Amino acid sequence: MSLLHGISASNGIAIAKAYRFVEPDLSFSKKTVEDIPEEIARFHSALSISKSELEVIRDTAEKELGTDEAAIFNAHILVLIDPELVTAIGDKIKSDKVNAEYALKETTDMFIMMFEQMDNEYMRERAADIRDVTKRVLSHLLNVEIINPSMITEEVVIIAEDLTPSDTAQLNRKFVKGFTTNIGGKTSHSAIMARTLEIPAVVGTKEATKCIKDGDIVIVDGFNGQVHINPTSEVIATYENEQVKFEQQKAEWAKLVNEKTTTADKHHVELAANIGTPEDLEGVINNGGEGIGLYRTEFLYMGRNQLPTEEEQFEAYKKVLQGMSDKPVVVRTLDVGGDKELPYLNLPKEMNPFLGLRAIRLCLQEQAIFRTQLRALLRASVFGNLKIMFPMIATLDEFRQAKAVLEEEKQELLNNNINVANTIEVGIMVEIPSTAILADQFAKEVDFFSIGTNDLIQYTMAADRMNEHVAYLYQPYNPAILRLVKMVIDAAHNEGKWTGMCGEMAGDEIAIPLLLGLGLDEFSMSATSILKARAQLLQLKKSDMVELANEALQMATADEVVRAVKARSNL
Questions:
Q1: Is the pLDDT of residue 571 over 60?
Q2: How many CB atoms lie within 10 A of CB 520?
Q3: Looking at the annotation, which residues are catalytic?
Q4: In this structure, are 112 and 221 located in the same domain?
Q5: pLDDT value at position 170?
Q6: Which residues are annotated as a binding site for phosphoenolpyruvate?
C-alpha cells in the first residue's frame, strides 16, 4: 500500500479499480516492406476495426447524448471510407514500399495541411476529422489501445495527467466513481466539473500516472486530498464506513431541499447553482437551487468539430429557462481561451493565454460568433427569467461595446417580429482587479455584478490557479481579496443593484460566513454544495457575521482570517 497527497477538488470517497487515462504512444519508424499485399491487407484490417469501433461509439453517443452529438462520428466514418484518401494511402504503400503506419501519416498529413489552408470553413473542419481518424487507425496498426472515457463499462477511478473539460463532460457517473490527476488545482475546470457530477476528485498529486497501474485498487479521499493505492482490507473497511456516514449526512441536508435560504436572524440570501449543460438541471432542482447563477455556455462549443448553430443554442437556452420556471437564470456569454481551447477556431498560440484573447475580448473580435449566441439568447428570453452576463470585462468601453451589440441584435429581432423579453438584466463578471476597483463606475451602467473569484484570486495574487506548485497562493480568505469583494458589493448596493458570486468561493464553508457579513446577495455554486450551504447559513446570524467580516478586512493574513471564522461560526 502507498499514499499520494494532492489537492481536494471534490468531496466524497471513491473505491474502485484504476483506469489509466493516458495518451497512448503512437510513435513508429519508417520501414521498407517486401510483402506489399500483406501490408495493404494489414492497413485495410485497421480501417475495418476502426469503422466497427466508430459505429459502436456513434450508436452509444446517439442513445446517451442525442443525434447532434453523434453526428461527429458519422463524419469520422465517412473519412474512413473515402476512396480518395484510402486509395492514396494504398498507392503510397505500393509505390514507396513503406509500412502502413508511414504511408498513413504521410498521406493524411498532406490532406490535413491542404484542408487547413482552404477558405471554406466546412472544408477546414474536415482536417480535424482526418486527424482524429488517423490517430484511431494508427493505434490499431500499432496494437495500442486508444482511450475513450465514454466507453467505460465498469466501476473505475480515472488516473490522468489532467482532464480537459470535454474529457470530464464525457465521464459516466454510473461507472466513473472518482478521479485523480497529476496536475491541476481546486478551481481547475476538471475539478469544477467533478463537483457538478458529484464525482470525488483529488488533483495535483504530481505522480499519480507514475505510481498507479491499470487494475490497482484505489481509494480517492476527496475530503482530505489523499489517494491510497492498493490499500489494506482494514483501510478499505474504514473508508467504506466513511462513505456510509457521508451518505447519512447528505440525507439530513436533503430535508432542506424545499426550504428558503435564511439565516438564524431571518435574513434571506439566494442560493443558486453553476451549470454547464441543460442536463445539469436535474441536479439543481434536486438540490433546491433557487436559480442558476452561472450557465457556462462554452460547453455547447466543446467536444465538437464546428461551432453550434443558432438553433442548437436556442434550444439549449430555452430548455434551461423553461426548466427553471420563473427562477432567475444568469447566462454567461462564450468564455473560451486560457485552458478552454476550441481547436476548430484556429486561434493563434499565445505566450500567456490567460491574459490574452479570451472571453469578451474574443467575442468582440469575432462578432459573428458573438451575435449568433446573442440572437439565440434573446429568442429564448421569452421562456423564462433570463439575465445575460459578459465575462472578463476589464474596461467600461468593453461593456458598452458588448451591450451595444446586444441591443443591435435585439432591435433586429424586434424588426422581424420576433418576440424578446423586455425584462432582461445585463451584468458583468467581476474577475479582473481593475474592474473591482472601478466598481462604483461600472455600477452606474450594469444591472448586476457576479464576482468570479476563481480568476479574481488568480489575477490578484499573480498565481496560476491550475498550477499545483503555487496552489498555496490561491487564497480566497486573503484580506486583499475580501476588500475587493467588499468594494464590489458596496458599489452595487449604493446604486440599488445586486451582487452575486459564481466562483468556487461562494460554496466554501469558511468563506460563507465572511460573504454573508460582507453583504453578498446571491451565492452560486456547484448544485451539490447548495444543501450543505443552506444548512450552514441557517445556523449563522447576519449581524454577527457583519462584525466578523469587518474584523477580517483589517487582518493581515489569510491564516488569521481562517482562525477568526472558525472561532466565530462553529466550524
A1: yes
A2: 26
A3: 189, 502
A4: no
A5: 65
A6: 296, 332, 454-455, 465
